[in-house]
Design a protein that fits this description.
8 helices, mainly alpha
């Protein structure tokens, strides 16, 4: 008696989110320890640079426009570095998981070293394309972001060249782009509200400091407290690990679906005429 052939279907968003949380809870320590060791020094360097800008501004050494502009550069650099590093670590861990290998800090770092450069090149291409998309209003940035997310997975998992990863990502997203897009929106909302807990103290203190500055000049203590709270708000970026885990779970789901489609086509070609 023939057994029923069950092909993998597209998982629902809630299923992917629950699988992501399960994966993170099982591998939280092994993912976060090396991530914190690399991220924390960079965040401290950014905090020192922002502190220098703050002292220079409060002493009258720069205008408000220059202070805000230069501060935005450091903030953007910290954000991009944090997001890229977190996504690369998560993807490396998931790749080891799906290959049935042991997830350890050493194995994750080996994967990061192998795929780090093409991952960075792909990220730079995304920012260039996103900038032109905003200027030309030609391709929505969100479409590029979904394509970029799946392409980075191809770079790490399949170890394919950068432009080949974009082509393969486009093929995987056929008929499934909107499902992936809505999943990214849901994950983004979850990340925002969880990270907002870290953002609240910095926001309230900045408002109170602004009101205080209208009457009195800020002192050394005010500036240092602000920088420490800003550092805590930086850790809100760590919650993007939820977003990237869900997106890369979707990538492996799309791969399983494609393999199922190939199997179905082979069955139809072999037995369709009988």
């Amino acid at each position: 008696m023939n057994k029923e052939i069950k092909l993998t279907g597209l998982r629902t968003n809630d299923k992917i989110i629950s699988e992501s949380i399960s994966f993170l809870s099982a591998n939280f320590r092994v993912l976060f320890l090396p991530l914190i060791k690399i991220t924390l020094p960079v965040l401290l360097i950014i905090m020192v640079a922002e502190s220098y800008l703050s002292f220079n501004y409060f002493k009258g050494g720069s205008s408000l426009f220059d202070y805000l502009l230069e501060g935005s550069y450091y903030s953007a650099a910290g954000s991009v570095f944090s997001y890229m590093l977190i996504s690369l670590f998560v993807l490396s861990g998931l790749t080891l998981h799906y290959r049935g290998e042991v997830i350890s800090p050493g194995s994750i770092m080996r994967t990061v070293r192998i795929s780090g450069l093409p991952f960075l090149v792909l990220t730079l291409l995304f920012f260039i394309a996103a900038a032109f998309s905003v200027i030309l209003l030609f391709v929505p940035v969100l479409f590029l972001y979904v394509l970029y997310s799946i392409a980075t997975a191809e770079v790490v998992v399949e170890e394919v060249p950068v432009f080949n990863s974009i082509r393969k990502a486009h093929q995987l997203l056929k008929r499934n782009y909107w499902k992936t897009f809505w999943l990214s929106m849901i994950l983004g909302i979850i990340q925002f509200f969880m990270g907002f807990v870290f953002e609240l103290p910095a926001t309230f203190f900045q408002i109170s400091l602004s009101l205080h500055d209208a009457v009195n000049s800020p002192g050394f203590t005010d500036v240092m407290i602000l920088q420490l709270i800003e550092l805590s708000s930086r850790f809100a970026y760590l919650f993007s690990i939820i977003f990237w885990t869900g997106i890369y779970m979707q990538y492996f789901n799309l791969r399983e679906m494609k393999q199922g489609d190939v199997l179905l086509n082979q069955i139809e070609q072999k037995f369709g005429n009988h």
